[in-house]
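OP here, attaching both records as promised.
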Amino acid sequence: MERALVVGVDGSDSSLRALDWAVDEALRRGCELHIVHGSSWEWYEGHEPSFAINRTSVRTYADHIAAQAVERAQNRTSAVKVVGQVLPADPAAALIHESREASAVIVGNRGRSELTGLLLGSVSLVVAAQAECPVIVVRGEERNLTGGFRRVAVAVDTAKDAAPALEFAFRAAQRRDAAVHAVHAWRCPAHDLPDYPRAEDATDMHRDLAEAELAQALRGQLRVHSDLTVHREVVEGRPRTALLDAAKSADLLVVGARRRKGHVGMQLGPVNHAVLHHAACPVAVVPHS
């Protein structure tokens, strides 16, 4: 049986949308759903000073959020086993910890305390960058959230790095009886120079290389999933633009993550940031390794 899905809840509208999406995903996968509420105030119970926190009321409130989420999930379907738990940790830390044993972690795109101007909550961004399994950020319009397009879009960078994201995307499409939309963006370096004559032969060469790269990346999944409809798209331009366009008519956008370790911790690339903040549909971030 597939490992459980984990979904983070905090009582916000965004987390409740993520919860509903997670219930439907667990039903498609035939797996358990673990609902996690990270109660950051509880972390202080074992530390001094206590800041005069009313620990009983904090625990009662946290239990209420988790119980309400479990009830909502069970009302949505009785076919999924649902487990709720409150963890005495920062919400992001709690979800990252749970990601070690999960098939995927699901989060909303905003939290209760996020500033109005933020497009993506800090917890969601940290989890997407550091979780040890794929992370799905639930965002987008109603039709994108309810499978109205029957299409899973997937970003293909290089054939060498694309395998995990492609495997995730093809399996997601199979569960949804959906088509796969594989997108590969390419650039002709000469076109970036001012007043450079746009020779057709140079453009054709770069387009042919892009099509070959996409074909090579898809080869393995096409053998395994020969029954799926696959749309291939090679686009001259910026990857973020191509992916945001593809997301408009998708139920899920899948991107790979080359998580870089630096002096400020784990980082996602600029394309990942762009789709996590602006995509019109849920976004799955799948680690390369």
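Record two, same layout:
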Amino acid sequence: MCRRFTTVSSLLLLTAGLAGFQSTQAEYGINFPPPAADVAQEIYDIHMLTMRIATFLLLVVFSFVIYSLYFHRKSRGYQADQNFHNTWFGNWSWVIVPALVLGVDLTIASNADTVLKKVWDVPKDEKLMDVKVTGHQWWWEFDYLDHGIKVESRYIPEEKAGDLYLREVDNRLVLPTDTKIRFLHTSADVLHAFWVPELAFKKDAIPGYVTETWSEINREGVFRGQCAELCGTWHSRMPLVVESVSPEKFQEWVNEQQAIKVATAAEAASTKTWSKNELMTKGKALYETKCAACHQVTGLGLPPAFPPLNGSHIVNGPVEGHLNMVINGKPGTAMQAWGSLNDLEIAAIVTYERNTWDNKTGDTVQPTDVALAR
């Protein structure tokens, strides 16, 4: 009866194991994402070589283990060899096995060293397109140095992003295919790290330093990454989205961005007196893009690091103090200087903050007021 029960149990376990194996077949294709650059492909190839070697060694080791468990088990009456350590293999296995392992390591390392040099050594004898990547708490800034374009990239809130929450941004990093691109990495505050797996590299952005990497994207597509350095409370809200397009489409995008830049500059430089409603509309959009990450859409902030603006003595105090805080920031705190915004943008944000939530100052700040405050 006991033997029969054991046999039935074994069959049930075998059946469950086969069923579990079949259910995992759908996930068999999970691996690194398909590379989008030649260097990334080389890294992928090293990964696959490592996995093949590891799988082969796993099979060899398990074969020995299974063989020993079956043929040397106690139920067969096998007696353990008490003098194995004095045999030829017993003496030399301590040298042979580590030597084989070292040989495997060196096989992988030699290829890896060559690829690493390609990743870190930026081509010097060719014309490259330069993109400066600046990490902020918690968003990315991309400067297309050859085109005079600046793009700010922030995560999209869950209600708008849906399934791509923390994987989608408002402005993607648009790059051309078949073009060597040099990335210049730095940070405005703490350590960040630019990481898009399909492009082959991960590079730290260090405050006060500029480091460089490069890539040449060989196909069109959308590639997602994220900040790979723990940079603070909202580290998870720093996704990266790269959209690669053909050189022709990229030039069209550049022309559009340059036209928007010219129109924005002209609008900000005009002497027009803006109505309160116009400033509130612009200010709401700008606040939710640039300020809400820290101070929240509700204006309640995240104390103590990010104080509330709703009911704030600065927001409800003199306009001059409010403008000074926005333009120059506050040293020693997370409040950075926003003087890089144009006069109209700052005027709109300040007007919105002073006339929303429970703040009802009634003030209307004009771009000329911001110009004087600078």
